[in-house]
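Hello,

Following up on my earlier ticket. Below are the two sequence lines again, exactly as submitted.
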Amino acid sequence: MKVLIVEDDADMRRLLKIVMAGLDVDMEEAPDGESAIHSIETSQEPDLVLLDLHLPHISGEEVFDAIRKHSKSAIVIVTADILAAPEFVSKADGVFTKPFKTNELIVKLTSLLSTHRNEAKEE
Amino acid sequence: MKKIRSLKIPNTFDSEDLRMRKILNIILLALMLISLVALASVFMYGDSVLEVLSSDDSQPIFWGSLVMVIICAILIILNRSTRIPKDIVGWLLVILMTAVVTFSDHPAELTNGRSLIFWFLPILLSVVVLPPASVFIVDVIVFVIITVFSESPDSVNIFAMFVIAAASLLAWLGMSIANKALQDARNEAEKNRAILNGVADGVVVLNASEQVVLANPAALNMLGSAIARFASTADEDRKEVGGRVLSFSWSDVKGVGNVAIVRDISRQVEVERAKDAILGVVSHEMRTPLASILGFSEVLARTSSSPEIAERIHVNAQRMIALVDDLLDHAQIQAGTLKMSRERFSPFTLAKMVNDLLTARATEKGVSLNIAVSDALPQNLMGDPQRLQQILINLTWNAIKFTDRGGQVNVLLLPKGDNASTWQMLVSDTGIGIPPERLPDIFESFRRASDYATRTHQGAGLGLSIAKKIALLMGGDIQVTSTVGQGSVFTVTLPLEIAK
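Thanks for your patience. The regenerated structure is below:
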């Protein structure tokens, strides 16, 4: 299983990696929208993307649309923008506003990854 | 566009000069008309010009009328030229009138007979067409003529002269008063016009058929060509015109029309937007590092050998997040941009959430927290559960904080009476209570830390203020009653809408 962390804040990427350490997944990091899209298009498709909305150059919204277009990855929004978050509730597979509870994030990610794993097996 | 440029504040008063010239014109035209009639009447007795000229009766009337017509015509032309002072034309007219009277009858009749009354003509005329005091000069002229034409010094009619003088005095007095009143009115109008021209706010007046009848320069400047379509904005209070945000305040002024005060609030709107944007950025920028602190402290609490230190970091970072949230809410409420959702929710779930979130903190403080929902309250209501939860948490947490160990905080959700159109959330405590003089302002934002209500969110003093404002936005309200030493009751009253 592979998780892509799209987050411009290095500390936040580090925190997410530490929190997900017990999940037994490969983690890839993208500090901005370009590298996230590049990663989706060129390397192995991630099972899950953790996506920040405020990113330099290319916004999280655009990255969201690009991922949806190119892959079947589950997308979980992790954003500090509490005003923009509500509109992703129906579109994304999960929405967390910063600060999030680390254990709640883990519960959500575990459930999404297991669903994804089962779907992959069925295919 | 031409029509728009011509729209200016109408000057309802002619200048003094123009007014006088108009009066002179009317009098001259009337005189000319009378002379023309006299001229025409001469020919009713004779067949030809020659016959008229040979008749002793008709000849003076013919020549007199003809001269009058010509002089009047000349004076009318002179009166049109602004280069010739109006008083010159006025004096010429008075002199003409005096001459006409002088030669209108036999000297004996004019000085002491039936035609004495004709001397009032030049005198009254002078009051009207010349500065009122000129009447006394004309008096002197008339007296001189009467004296010169009298047969002997003994036959001069002193009594008639006295009456003429008295009439002149009265005429002068009346005209002076009228002129003063006119001048006052003119000054007042001029003042109002100067104010309308000078104010930065636009003033536009619409008549009953919604046509623009008046617009001051500020209004023309702000609205530009849009003023032609101004009536279409008659029910709006804000509009963007040519990149500017204008606010309108309308009032129906009796006898004037629908008056709009137009104000350019572009700058204000810009500042408001910038403030919102800054706040959004600040909130976001603070949230990101705080999220890291909270996340790392959570990890640390699980893995570190001194989890209580990690716990303190966590609690304090949470306080900061709460503060950032409150500030953002406060700013959104102030800016009127706080969005309220409308969804189905269960009052029971709402109560349970608050219970789950605050029980631990109440227990920690040694306060017993009881939350109950009345059976009479419908199972599902419509509203914004997140914001309702925020109100209830703010009030309940406030109550817990101001209740000493061993005390009680009771929360009750219930409909207000039977057939209720409103429902209530009651938060009562056995706390320290609020002194009566504090009651009126406990819902104010940013109360000082020493005040009662401030410690709600660890110091910002926004908790109660936000709760109250949200309740008001929901069409409800929050009331408080309190007895010092016995406790307080906060009552949130909200419109009740049952979910279908």
